[in-house]
Design goal:
Elements: E1 4-6, H1 11-20, E2 25-27, H2 33-38, E3 46-49, E4 59-62, E5 65-69, H3 74-79, H4 82-85, H5 87-94, H6 99-104, H7 107-113, H8 121-126, E6 130-135, E7 138-143, H9 144-147, E8 148-150, E9 153-154, E10 161-168, E11 174-179, E12 190-197, E13 202-208, E14 215-216, H10 218-227, E15 228-229, E16 234-235, H11 239-251, H12 262-280
Bound molecules: flavin-adenine dinucleotide.
Flavin-adenine dinucleotide binds at residues 25-33, 35, 50, 70, 95-97, 101, 104-106, 108-110, 112-113, 118-119, 156, 161-162, 185.
């Protein structure tokens, strides 16, 4: 059976197509979805391809908010002007798959897949990103922690698509770190994003691959926010690096699986968190 491939020329047309073809699936870069199709896990009657939708590939800055079109590819994020505005997202982008994958894989696809190991997600959770969605009833915006509801589950309704993702522009250092079984082309055993926002005097840390969804580390964040010398943007007490790592590891809820044990993942988080804090503050 072959699937009909629909090519909308606008977001509104994409929404119309999704709603007039029940069961139609969205295709962006295809790096997750085509794996499902190739393994026979998905047998779509029709597919709405977003590839020709240039409107989804643009980004714009409005004051302190950056709006990233859902069709922006990780290859676009890792080197462009965006890499200066959201350096942790660029770091995450550089770890995703291979150059071929990054040339196709989109940020919207990473969010919609909602894998606990998705490398873009810890950065978006730490930045408290907002997911902007379009559907027949108009547009709505959801905080990312409400948009992603579980392992590969989202709050996206039938016939809806992600138009863009909004993040604040933070004034301070950022870091993304990932551990896998190899150095490249690897699914994360643990990943972590740390965002320091000097203007808002805020520290945000999010963990991936160590729970059903991305986990924020409230206690660890609070510890650092209290200990930072915000005027000099530095930490004077070296004990904080270790304590931060341990608190982040305590927030993790990893499982044992064929890739790693829960204990290894918790240990990896402690190391990544301390290292990220040393690099940022
Ligand atoms: C070899 C290989 C290596 C990989 N390595 C990594 C890695 O290191 N890190 C990582 O995080 N991921 C990795 N991935 C997974 C994948 O590349 C990413 O998750 C990617 O961001 C998916 O984006 P896409 O545009 O290809 O999505 P697609 O495959 O086109 O779509 C994925 C899902 O999202 C839905 N979707 C896509 N766009 C939208 C939208 N705008 N609105 C609503 N729903 C939408 C689709 O219907 C589908 O269900 C890898 C995949 C492969 C094949």
């Amino acid at each position: 059976m072959t699937a009909a491939v629909l090519m909308p020329a606008s977001v509104d047309e994409a929404v119309d197509m999704l709603n007039s073809s029940p069961g139609a699936r969205i295709l962006a870069g295809g790096t997750d979805y085509m794996v499902e199709v190739n393994y026979g896990h998905a047998k779509p009657k029709s597919v709405v391809s977003l590839r020709a939708l240039d409107a989804l590939r643009v980004w714009r800055r409005d004051g302190d908010t950056l709006e990233l079109g859902s069709g922006i590819r990780f290859a676009d994020i890792q080197t462009s002007e965006l890499a200066k505005l959201v350096p942790a997202l660029a770091q995450a982008a550089r770890t995703i798959g291979s150059p071929q994958i990054r040339n196709a894989a989109t940020i919207g696809g990473n969010v919609a897949t909602a894998s606990p190991a998705g490398d873009g997600l810890p950065v978006l959770f730490a930045m408290e990103a907002v997911v902007n969605v379009a559907g027949v009833h108009g547009r709505r915006a959801l905080p990312i922690n409400e948009f992603i509801t579980g392992v590969k589950r989202t709050a996206l309704g039938p016939g809806e698509l992600i138009v863009s993702i909004s993040v604040p522009v933070a004034s301070g250092p950022q870091e993304f770190l990932k551990v896998g079984r190899r150095n490249a082309m690897v699914i994360a055993l643990a990943n972590l994003a740390l965002i320091v926002d000097g203007d808002r005097r805020k520290v945000a840390c999010a963990l991936g691959s160590v729970g059903p969804t991305i986990i924020r580390c409230d206690e660890a964040e609070g510890l650092v926010a209290r200990k930072v010398n915000w005027d000099r943007m530095r930490l004077d007490d070296p004990q904080v690096y270790q304590d931060f790592g341990e608190l982040c590891a305590n927030s993790a809820r990893p499982i044992n699986d064929h890739r790693a044990t829960a204990d290894y993942r918790r240990h990896a988080i402690a190391v990544l968190a301390s290292r990220a804090l040393m690099r940022t503050l």
